[in-house]
Design brief:
With 206 residues, this protein is an all-alpha fold. It contains ten helices and no strands.
């Protein structure tokens, strides 16, 4: 189920339960998602929804600290916002511990065998992917390397629509479509693939 649908279902459940704190949190995020959809002219993909939730949680985390600094005057609002943070964080990927990251690095190095400094970019990309639950295949690397070449030529990371068109032109229509790219990079062929490639986020990505 798409994340936007999960949010809608959660909203319905909160309405039935008359759970105002959850209703407020979901409606805030849905408003932000609608704004992003309008700005980008795109559908509410999982990538867009995750980006909005992540940005909102970061913003609210700062707000909590500000309200806490007010002492008793801000404690009620701080508790309200902290609830929103905890509730919405349930949709975000879990953060790995240092021990888990270390284990992933060891796994990647073991799988890759003998490596040298010239392959550092590939090692880092593989570690990031495994942290996201993805084992990079030749198909993944084909898109990642394409992105690196694109960035080297144009000095910009392409947005999803531009990437899809460019991939189709060079690698064929069977690969230059959103279904294929999202199967490889479920959190977004723009944002997630660029992260694995060591490139900045495409313009407009949250």
């Amino acid at each position: 189920m798409a994340l936007i649908e999960e949010l809608s279902d959660a909203l319905k459940e909160a309405m039935k339960a008359k759970d105002k704190p959850k209703l407020d949190a979901i409606r805030q995020v849905q408003t932000e998602i609608a704004k992003k959809k309008s700005e980008k002219g795109e559908e509410a993909t999982d990538e867009l929804v995750l980006g909005v939730i992540s940005s909102y949680v970061k913003k609210m985390t700062k707000a909590v600290e500000e309200y806490k600094s007010l002492g008793d005057r801000g404690s009620e609002m701080a508790d309200k916002i902290q609830f929103e943070i905890d509730f919405l964080s349930g949709w975000l990927p879990e953060q790995l511990s240092e021990e888990e990251v270390s284990t992933i690095i060891d796994e990647v190095l073991s799988e890759m065998g003998d490596v040298d400094m010239s392959q550092m970019g590939k090692i880092i990309g593989a570690v990031m992917a495994k942290a996201d639950g993805i084992d990079l295949s030749d198909d993944h690397w084909e898109i990642i390397n394409f992105l690196r070449e694109y960035y080297e030529e144009y000095q910009i990371a392409p947005a999803v629509r531009v990437l899809t068109k460019a991939v189709g032109k060079k690698l064929g229509k069977d690969k230059g479509n959103s279904k294929y790219l999202y199967e490889l990079f479920p959190y977004g062929p723009g944002k997630q693939a660029c992260k694995f490639a060591g490139l900045p986020k495409p313009t407009g990505c949250v």
